[in-house]
Task: inverse folding
């Protein structure tokens, strides 16, 4: 006789660890949208100013990276069919990263570039080190690698570079030692963070999740592999040439290679989407499609931007940043959270009852109408914000930020509804 | 005595929560073999690396074990032949909008 012994997945870590990461991320998202709303008058012009630096780090560390950590602890074991090296380390990392982010954001906000900023940067580096140990410990147990795995390894390398570069930059604000331009190194830090760490994870994970959600079959993954080679080649180029003077041509070529790589990624997503069996587009997929369009626009914009002088356009850096961080990344994350949180909650509460009593489907875990309302609120806010920046209209900006803040509240409400289900 | 038809009927209670269709209609069950002391199920999933990998096989075991506690329930997860949309029932295809 054999009773089932594996009703709980053999690989995934406990619900309570993962949900902590998502909860912190969502709180950061709401707070950063509130800060944008309250400080809309200061959000214009050049990016190197305390409040914009603070909000950017709240966004990249608190919202985006927290979500990625939570999602990776859930997904890596499942996708690579291996147990996470240490759940304890995942828990410890959370608290150190949380503290480091709060400190760093406060440091930037008050432009306290001494102990607070640098101490926080050290904490964040420790958290990244813990994450790396945990992930490498997991990776060495993997028996069968796949494309998603390659992307995750590369992303981890770039995360480490980002964190170390971040600390070196914060130290330079305290005790200046970098001989070439601080802003040049800041660009390297930002590019490696966004393209190397975040986008690399997004790409690798998308190849796994989008087909799963859309039930897509019978497509080739060749474009996805090309995207990997090209984006990495471009990033290696940028990481090398940034340290030299007179590097304009080399950087342009690297940017171009990255843009072509992202083009291959988007083409791969298109192939997956075209071969989908589920024709109905749920809210998670709608958000993802919007976000991939934004990625395409941001890439084109960034590419033209690196070849042309755009300094006469008002807020050009902010437009590009908003396209990437809100249009592409935040909309993708919100969409994926609409898929992941219902799944995690359902799994936690109902998976042991399947077949024994009626259980809800994932789509029954939340009110779809509210979720679609959320989609229209947020995507409208993205488009209006970009327009407000372009026309330098602060009243329109206030309205757009208010719309995104309302969207973030509705999103939080929907997530709480799911957790309570 | 449990029959193959009864096993398939029971397995229709295992519903993929994401897709909203049961594993029999999805064409995931390849083979059902009933012996004196065991029930052998050979099945697949729509994609390797599905987050419900070990869970779905657990559900299959649980449901069958409730009905036939005197037998060993053996579930073999196979990837060859790989699942393809043609294996779905007409009703399932219609529900997905194919």
Result:
């Amino acid at each position: 006789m054999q009773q089932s012994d594996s009703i709980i997945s053999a690989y995934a870590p406990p619900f309570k660890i993962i949900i902590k990461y998502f909860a912190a991320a969502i709180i950061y998202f709401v707070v950063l949208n509130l800060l944008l709303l309250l400080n809309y008058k200061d959000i214009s012009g050049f990016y190197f100013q305390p409040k914009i630096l603070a909000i950017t780090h709240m966004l990249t560390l608190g919202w985006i990276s927290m979500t990625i950590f939570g999602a990776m602890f859930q997904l890596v074991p499942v996708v690579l069919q291996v147990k996470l090296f240490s759940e304890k380390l995942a828990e410890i990392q959370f608290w150190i990263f949380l503290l480091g982010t709060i400190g760093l954001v406060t440091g930037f906000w008050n432009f306290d570039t001494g102990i607070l900023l640098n101490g926080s940067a050290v904490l964040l580096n420790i958290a990244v080190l813990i994450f790396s140990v945990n992930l490498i410990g997991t990776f060495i147990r993997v028996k069968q690698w796949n494309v998603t795995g390659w992307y995750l390894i590369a992303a981890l390398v770039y995360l480490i570079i980002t964190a170390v570069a971040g600390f070196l930059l914060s130290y330079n604000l305290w005790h200046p030692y970098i001989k070439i331009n601080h802003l040049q190194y800041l660009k390297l830090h930002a590019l490696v963070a966004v393209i190397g760490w975040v986008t690399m994870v997004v790409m690798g994970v998308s190849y796994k999740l989008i087909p799963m959600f859309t039930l897509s079959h019978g497509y080739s993954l060749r474009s996805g592999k090309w995207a990997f080679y090209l984006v990495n080649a471009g990033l290696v180029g940028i990481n090398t040439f940034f340290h030299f003077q007179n590097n304009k041509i080399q950087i342009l070529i690297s940017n171009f290679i990255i843009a072509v790589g992202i083009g291959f990624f988007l083409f791969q997503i298109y192939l997956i989407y075209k071969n989908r069996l589920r024709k109905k587009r749920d809210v998670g997929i709608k958000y993802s499609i919007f976000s991939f369009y934004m990625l395409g626009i941001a890439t084109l914009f960034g590419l033209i931007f690196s070849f042309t002088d755009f300094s006469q356009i008002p807020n050009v850096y902010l437009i590009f940043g908003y396209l990437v961080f809100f249009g592409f990344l935040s909309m993708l994350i919100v969409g994926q959270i609409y898929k992941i949180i219902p799944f995690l909650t359902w799994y936690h509460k109902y998976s042991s009852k399947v077949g024994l009593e009626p259980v809800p489907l994932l789509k029954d875990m939340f009110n779809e109408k509210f979720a679609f309302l959320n989609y229209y609120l947020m995507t409208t806010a993205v488009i209006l914000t970009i327009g407000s920046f372009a026309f330098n209209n602060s009243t329109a900006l206030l309205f757009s930020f208010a719309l995104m803040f309302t969207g973030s509240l509705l999103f939080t409400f929907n997530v709480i509804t799911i957790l309570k289900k | 005595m449990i029959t193959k038809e009864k096993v398939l009927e029971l397995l229709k209670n295992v519903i993929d929560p994401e897709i909203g269709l049961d594993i029999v209609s999805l064409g995931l069950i390849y083979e059902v073999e009933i012996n004196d002391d065991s029930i052998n199920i050979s099945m697949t999933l729509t994609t390797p690396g599905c987050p419900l990998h070990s869970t779905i096989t657990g559900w299959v075991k649980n449901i069958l074990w409730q009905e036939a506690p005197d037998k060993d329930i053996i579930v073999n997860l196979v990837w060859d032949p790989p699942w393809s949309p043609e294996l779905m029932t007409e009703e399932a295809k219609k529900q997905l909008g194919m």
About this structure: The CA atoms of residues 350 and 359 of chain A lie 6 Å apart. The first helix of chain A runs from residue 15 to 38. Residues 170-269 of chain A form one domain. The radius of gyration of chain A is 21 Å.
